[in-house]
Amino acid sequence: MSLLLTEIQARWHQLFSLLEAGSDVPPSLWMRTEGLMEAATITGETIPAEIDALMDGVYQTIYGQNLATAFGGDWRDFYPFPQIPAVAKRAPVYPSTSD
Length: 99
Description:
mainly alpha
């Protein structure tokens, strides 16, 4: 595997690990990783389907389920390439009044 794809996988791992732990992800990490994904396809190093398969593997390692299970089989319709399909955990919300 190339150095570029190895770096992209490391960034996915960091991003998904932060989200799974309930932490925020710096927008710079998110957007730069998407930029690297796009660069890998523009340079001909890989194709979007291969990137998606690699990302799916990292996602499954962190969350224990694949992207299709988490976001539906048509997840790329909602997250067009090179967007990373991930969301933060909901913050716990407690009512401040009884009404």
